[in-house]
Design brief:
alpha/beta, globular, 30% helix, Rossmann fold
């Protein structure tokens, strides 16, 4: 069975909540190419935004023990939160998890400046998560797990880089471009170049109000999945080529290497015969990974 994630949303209004990230500094990642102009996306000062208004929330079946684990599910282009919740509900309920699946108003994924502007969706997502106890009467574990497909995979990973202390793990499937967990890269001539969002994390404070916390991000666990037939260079924007390669398949492989070099736990799974889709084996393996994670002591 293959899952197609089409547009449908459930609208609810949520009051604004705190926007959190935390500070640190990171060393450089070596860059094979000297092309660096794509990293110079203009910065914008952080402005608090309204929380996301459209989402599907699915509580666990029966009387699950609280605080609950919250699974945040992020759809791809043209998808919806309702589609993601429907696809993941049976497996989430086996684990006793609640699901939060927002419908994200993404802009054009081929334009880095618009991807940068979409960074504002992540503090809004954090505000929505923070508001859930008051809206539902339920309590949740402080760290969420995230499942994302395609554009949603990109944003799930970016959320974990902005809010690593509130993220236990990410299952990212079939992303087309990635944000490196680094603030700078080697420029090929012995110097360093700042790597701004959405390519890197040098200025995420302009998105979420606090600087990148590398030590916290190293504690997040990542599972990156991709189909081995998801390898058409025309499907992804060219501006990320110097950093992670030219196709979704190549980029997934390279990004796992980058995460491992960074110091995070990261694994790669390539699905034979799969293209740009969510097959049952893909969904099941991603959820199995998230279920395998154990919360740190005292959480």
């Amino acid at each position: 069975m293959r899952h197609r994630l089409s547009s449908l949303a459930v609208s609810l209004f949520i009051v604004a909540a705190a926007l959190i990230c935390s500070p640190s500094a990171m060393g450089p990642v070596a860059l094979a190419s000297s092309q660096a102009s794509a990293a110079s996306v203009p910065s914008a000062r952080f402005v608090a935004a309204d929380p996301l208004k459209e989402y599907t929330f699915v509580p666990p079946a029966g009387s699950s023990r609280q605080p609950l684990r919250l699974l945040v599910a992020l759809h791809g282009m043209g998808g919806s939160g309702a589609d993601m919740a429907t696809m993941l509900k049976p497996l989430a309920q086996q684990q006793g998890w609640a699901i939060l699946a927002p419908t994200m108003p993404y802009r054009d994924y081929r334009d880095p400046e618009l991807v940068r502007r979409d960074g504002e969706l992540l503090p809004r997502l954090k505000a929505l998560i923070d508001a859930l106890p008051g809206r539902t009467g339920l309590t949740f574990q402080p760290q969420v797990v995230l499942f994302g497909f395609s554009r949603g995979s990109q944003e799930a990973i970016r959320y974990s880089l902005m809010y690593p202390e509130f993220t236990l793990g990410v299952a990212g499937l079939s992303a087309g471009s990635y944000t490196l967990p680094e603030t700078a890269i080697a420029n090929g001539s012995g110097g360093q170049q700042t790597l701004n969002y959405p390519y890197g994390t040098a200025d995420v404070d302009t998105i979420c109000g606090r600087a990148f916390d590398a030590a916290a991000a190293q504690k997040v666990a990542y599972w990156i999945g991709v189909g081995n037939a998801d390898a058409n260079p025309a499907d992804v924007p060219r501006q990320w080529d110097p950093y992670i390669g030219t196709t979704r398949l190549e980029r997934a492989q390279r990004y796992v290497e980058i995460l491992q070099q960074f110091g995070a736990r990261a694994s790669l799974e390539i699905f034979p015969g799969a293209g740009h889709e969510v097959s049952d084996p893909m969904r099941d393996d991603a959820m199995r990974f998230l279920a395998s994670l154990s919360a740190p002591a005292g959480s």
